[in-house]
Amino acid sequence: MSGSAIVIGGGIGGLAAALGLRRIGWGATVLERTAELGEIGAGMSQSPNALRALEELGVAEQARAAGVPFHGVFNLRAPSGDYITRALPGGASPLLGFHRADLHRVLMDAVPAQWVRTGAEVTAIRQSGGEVTVSCGDEELRADLVVAADGVRSTVRRLLWPEAPGPRFWGNTIWRGIAKAEGIEGSMTLGRGQYFLVMPVGRGRVYWALGAHAGRPAVRYDDELAEVRRRARDWHDPIPRLLDATAPEAVLHHDITDLGPLDSYARGRVVLLGDAAHAMHPDMAQGAAQSLEDAVVLAAALAEAGDIPAALSRYDEQRRPRTQTIVKQARTKGRGSTSSNAVSYYLRTLTLRMVPSSRWPGLAARALAPVWDWTPPRLPR
Ligand SMILES: Cc1cc2nc3c(=O)[nH]c(=O)nc-3n(C[C@H](O)[C@H](O)[C@H](O)COP(=O)(O)OP(=O)(O)OC[C@H]3O[C@@H](n4cnc5c(N)ncnc54)[C@H](O)[C@@H]3O)c2cc1C
Prior knowledge:
Structural class: alpha/beta
Distance between the termini: 15 Å
CATH architecture of the largest domain: 3-Layer(bba) Sandwich
CATH topology of the largest domain: FAD/NAD(P)-binding domain
Radius of gyration: 21 Å
Bound molecules: flavin-adenine dinucleotide
């Protein structure tokens, strides 16, 4: 089956969806509301399942070239700098760290430029017969299928799933920045009620994030970098050094939210993908990874099924249970990692210290196997 699609949103999910459609011989128009296509200045890691999805989308090689092996999950530290567990010298890592803009660019470069329209905000959507119409400025655009990859505050989700609650805050907030620095190793420092992530992302840039418990959402500071410094005062090197090497105006501060389960990711010929379907806590580093998986599964379903409703029902069957499970796991992990309870912090670090460093990579891979071991459906070459 072939056809034409409108993809709403030009983030990682939307571009991956467009790429998947391209792989199966469909045409697509990507509508992105911002004036310029680009990703915010922060970092992210990608796991083996995401790399397999990128492989199927035909851009794994470019993604590997843009990423940097990330050992942070094997270098757990206490605020004093003491290693709770340490990556083995020369050890491989299943994870790659990226500047988000670099991963976004890999996808963007693979999508035909004429498919993408910026400054194009979708405000309404309606379906009749075998067609979907979206309103975008003064224009109405029609397609056989609409893929809504418009993020956690999805307009399409609000319009077509009006009964579904919006983003939910569970008590986590996060500051992120990019520092100019060389020779820094990836690490994760576990404090009580907060953690500090350090991730080299190549070309002399290091992504950092301070995740913390927050009693209420929307608390903002005049000087966000100063607030990070205050929270991580006395924490080990290179944390103060990275904060000194960060432009204060480029520090991002967001509250973490996720989206509750839906009874279907499809309504008629409109399908949700990425954060619009299943926004999740970042603590399993799976939000974008799952959007890449979505894109491959959607393309495979469209290539194989006899018609669009059958394809969307196959996509929904395969994606909803998996992503909704990960949303729940990520929330539990996120709340645990910023728990300020002294006893749970003590027990957590004590348990981690009991694991010999040499056993960490194997244990992590085993614990995360249900997520990391995902095998993509094959897209036609
Ligand atoms: C702190 C943090 C750390 C993270 N770390 C990781 C990680 O390490 N690994 C990982 O895999 N994931 C991570 N994630 C998750 C990841 O960032 C998201 O899951 C992913 O970016 C979602 O992509 P998306 O394309 O679905 O949505 P978005 O990136 O939100 O893109 C949606 C796009 O749609 C556009 N849009 C919205 N409404 C409209 C409209 N009406 N019309 C047209 N365009 C519209 C927006 O402008 C935007 O460009 C992290 C998230 C956070 C918050």
